[in-house]
Specification:
alpha+beta; Four Helix Bundle (Hemerythrin (Met), subunit A); Alpha-Beta Plaits; Heat Shock Protein 90; 5 domains; six-stranded mixed β-sheet; five-stranded mixed β-sheet; 21 helices; 22 strands
Length: 664
């Protein structure tokens, strides 16, 4: 199949799936919304046609069954019930998974027959049939062929409460196996032989109940084994061949027992983890470009070619006046070319946040909460790279708001609040930055709880906490591993997440801030540059070293004779505000500093940073020039170095460090 057509099919399918999810959410909240119903039907019809045209019959059959059911709902012959909507959302999830497989492998191996059967069953028997097993079909995949029982029947959680296994003992996966010996006259003896046979293949790390009780026959119909394995399917196959064993059920409990350290979960009063992969946002691999932009780009390339020819002739003729004039032309052309290309990389925020309403819906149902989720400013545009990077941090923050912010309906009513909580994602443009806020009207952050956790984890001492205001205390939730939740759930409480948010935003040359009012809610604000890579910087000299300060961070350049002493520290005053001085030479241990001709007495200058970025002034030996540079972020062991955001290669080949004034 032609890769060009396949890629176009995948991108269009992704957009249609997002559109379908959001229209279904509108219908679920308002079953009488005729416009949403018509949009849903059109989208499902489009997906069916696209899958059929590309030869993906299983997906086409699934979309066709969904289309038929939606048509009945549109005609008023089928009620919009939660169970019916769950079934339709299940179909959408399968279609999304199929598209993912097609993108990775060029085809899909997913069997959609069970879901199609369930959809047809609801069509024939009405909405009450939704969620009910169909004759000859179980709601979970059958394990008939392997001889093992359905792992969904396992009561793993209660067994995990009593097991004691050191995480260091498990190098791969930890499997919980429920063993059923069937009819036996000697349950203890048969269990002993069964476990000995299992130990020939796997290490038994623990049992439930105790092994002595099992060998004495003191267990109910089944007993549990905890095994280490690198392949759950192998456990099924190996134990199925043990003569004494009638049936087994196997489940991976690695994350459940050890806390899933690799899972991106919640920190501070924060959530994460769980089924987050289900709603993850893939890298943005395609953009829509306006035809006018393409025409502009084509025109600029034509001018570039013409100027190149003129410059070559001027150099060959040694006509320096003509060469200089052509260079000025090239400067204007490349500037316009740069702006056009950067604009083409800008993508609306809705490309990422379009999947969030569905995530909020599913998580709200899982948590038993009622949440109204709104998005404002989704047309705000950001660079493709930035938009891709912030998708997961935004997802973390929204999950935090749902899990820890918004209270349960009964709790909200007791507090005099509406049963339904509100979470709003709001984006706005401020000059060359975009501010994205996630605001909830929940319980707010617990200052005392944060202080207690900070002391217990040695993040801050009690004396330091007493000197901090609430905004500084809220910022402690960004500390790695910081979590105030007592219970680890599928959603949160593992102490990872908000530190990832902070690190990601900082790496993008942005900042993150938390504001909260107890009992009223919490707002997390991300401030991000609209574009990155090409930045206009101010070059400053410190000894023999040169550094770049992004012009967007600079407010003004002042004289060192305005320095004052406050509490033994050097500062300057501006509009009655105090700006502490950061000496770049001392900060970066620059050797052999000497007074340079900076144009002031003593040869030193102060660069005052914008208050919105950080209220400081940088002391340097000289201010050299302004220039646009391509900034490359620091990688490897240098990544995350405080005070540095990246490097730039100058025209003469020298490398200059670009300062990050926020972390300096």
């Amino acid at each position: 199949m032609d890769d060009q057509y396949l890629d176009a099919f995948i991108r269009e399918s992704e957009e249609e799936i997002t559109k379908l999810n959001n229209s279904l959410l509108e219908l679920e909240s308002d079953p009488e919304n005729r416009e949403a119903m018509d949009q849903i039907f059109r989208t499902a019809h489009t997906l069916k046609g696209n899958f059929g045209a590309m030869g993906f019959e299983d997906a086409s059959n699934l979309a066709h069954a969904m289309e038929d059911l939606l048509d009945e709902m549109r005609e008023g012959n089928m009620s919009v019930t939660p169970d019916v909507m769950d079934l339709i959302f299940q179909g959408v999830d399968e279609i999304e998974a199929i598209v993912g497989q097609i993108e990775e492998q060029g085809e899909s191996q997913m069997d959609t027959a069970d879901t199609v059967t369930q959809l047809r069953n609801v069509l024939e028997n009405g909405p009450d049939a939704a969620g009910q097993p169909v004759d000859g079909q179980t709601t979970e995949p059958s394990t008939e062929d392997t001889g093992s029982s359905d792992s969904s029947d396992l009561n793993v959680d209660s067994n995990l409460d009593t097991v004691d296994i050191d995480e260091g003992e498990v190098e791969d996966q930890l499997a919980y196996v429920e063993v059923d010996l069937g009819d036996t006259d000697m349950p203890g003896v048969d269990a002993m032989f069964a476990m000995e046979s299992v130990e020939e293949v796997f290490d038994i790390l623990a049992t439930d109940p105790d092994r002595s009780d099992i060998e004495d026959g003191e267990y109910e119909d089944t007993f549990g084994l905890f095994l280490e394995t690198d392949d759950l399917g192998r456990v099924d196959a190996e134990l199925d061949s043990v003569g004494q064993i009638d049936e087994v059920a196997v489940e991976d409990v690695t994350d459940d027992l050890f806390g899933g350290g690799s899972t991106a979960g919640g920190s501070g009063d924060s959530g994460g983890g769980g089924d987050e992969d289900e709603h993850s946002v893939d890298e943005i691999k395609s953009v829509r470009v306006d035809v006018d932009q393409l025409d502009d780009l084509h025109g600029l390339v034509e001018q570039l070619v013409t100027s190149r020819i003129k410059l070559r002739r001027a150099v060959e003729d040694e006509n320096m006046d003509s060469a200089e004039e052509t260079l000025n032309e090239l400067d204007k052309i490349t500037g316009s070319l740069q702006n056009t290309v950067m604009d083409m990389r800008l993508i609306p925020l809705k490309k990422v946040v379009g999947k969030f309403p569905r995530m909020v819906r599913d998580l709200s149902r899982e948590l038993g909460k009622e949440v109204n989720f709104e998005i404002e400013g989704e047309e705000i545009e950001l660079d493709r790279t930035i938009l891709t990077e912030i998708s997961d941090p935004l997802m973390h923050i929204i999950r935090n708001s749902l899990d820890h912010g918004v209270e349960a309906p009964e709790t909200r009513v007791e507090k005099g609040k509406p049963r339904q909580g509100n979470v709003t994602l709001r984006a706005s443009r401020e000059r060359d930055h975009v501010v994205i806020q996630v605001e909830d009207d929940g319980a707010g952050l617990d200052v005392d709880g944060i202080k207690k956790t900070a002391i217990e984890n040695n993040v801050r001492s009690a004396e330091e906490l007493e000197m901090m205001d609430n905004s500084e205390i809220y910022d402690l939730v960004f500390h790695p591993g910081f979590s105030t939740t007592d219970e680890v759930t599928d959603t949160s409480g593992r102490g990872v997440g908000m530190d990832v948010v902070h690190d990601t935003v900082t790496r993008l040359d942005g900042s993150v801030d938390v504001d909260s009012t107890p009992g009223e809610g919490t707002t997390v604000s991300l401030r991000l540059p609209v574009t990155m890579a090409i930045v206009k910087v101010l070059f400053v000299q410190v000894g023999d070293e040169e550094y770049g300060v992004p012009i967007k961070n600079v407010d003004e350049i002042t004289r060192t004779d305005e320095i004052q002493q406050v509490n033994g520290r050097e500062v300057i005053k501006h509009n009655d505000e105090i700006y502490p001085i950061v000496d770049l030479g001392e900060t970066f241990n620059v050797p052999e500093r000497a007074a340079t001709d900076g144009g002031t007495e003593g040869g030193q200058m102060l660069v005052r940073i914008r208050e919105s970025e950080r209220q400081i002034a940088l002391r340097c030996d000289a201010v050299n020039a302004q220039e646009e540079v391509v900034v490359k972020p620091l990688e490897g062991i240098l990544s995350g170095t405080p005070g540095l955001s990246g490097t730039a290669v100058l025209g003469d080949g020298n490398i200059v460090h670009i300062l990050d004034v926020v972390t300096l």
